Amino acid sequence: MTESDGVTPDADPAGETTATGPIDAAVPSDGDDDTAAEQETDDAIEGPRRRARRERAERREAQARAMAIEEARREAKRVARGRPAATSKPVGRGTVRGLKLFLLMLLLAVATTGVGLILYFTPVMSARSIIVTGIGAVSREEVLDVAHVRLGTPLLQINTDGVADRVAAIRRVASARVQRDYPSALRIIIVERIPLVVKDFPDGPHLFDRDGVDFATGPPPPALPYIDVDNPGPTDPATKAALAVLTALRPEVVAQVSRIAAPSVASITLTLTDGRTVIWGTNERTEEKAQKLAALLTRPGRTYDVSSPDLPTVR
Fold it and tell me: Model-level pTM?
């Protein structure tokens, strides 16, 4: 069997052969020409400033990528060595503000402590003088003797409560208060006891204040009433009842009392300077009885009975 036109069956016809792959890449297309033209046009329009900004942005991006790669490499090393991954948290603005406040408070505390130490251990503010007020029967020397305060002692080293307690231990002193008078003085303020009644004892007359405290021995002031009780003192009920009566009376009535007797709290009597007698009775309704007595004494009589304030009598 003969083949027509001298063409073998295995041969491809020349007209059917096609070129692909590298042949297509080697041939420039119209789109590539357009892109290159546009790039050249953009470069011409961009200008030097825009090109510089773009290049800086590209450098920053490249640096950021490099830092990220380096951090990833370090993190991989830490994980490989078995260490926990490092976490970094940005410091908040509130934390910085709190740290500044803490440092300021610490500085103030240190400064205050330093000033306190200077004032406590140095004579910058020391007691160069001692001022005593409220004295009458008590002398200044007696107060200073029991106060035990040495001149030149820093004021902060002086125990004011201790000084006040020592001064208040004086029999004639009812209360004492001590204060630092900056920069260089100590002030002692005392309140003396005021005698309200007197009672005779073998060693002489004893003076008692309104609280029943026996605070002095000596001649009584003029017109001071005498008190007749068995056991005078601040805890004796009869003494307390008699003194309550005297403190309730009006001043013009008290000036007329020469003696008050209280054998018990239920039988109190007053003797006036002109010899008249007041039957007081119990220590109940004292204020009301004092008012009725002031009115009764304007009437003539020798005995005034206010033991029953609802029915006072004059005989």
Answer: 0.61
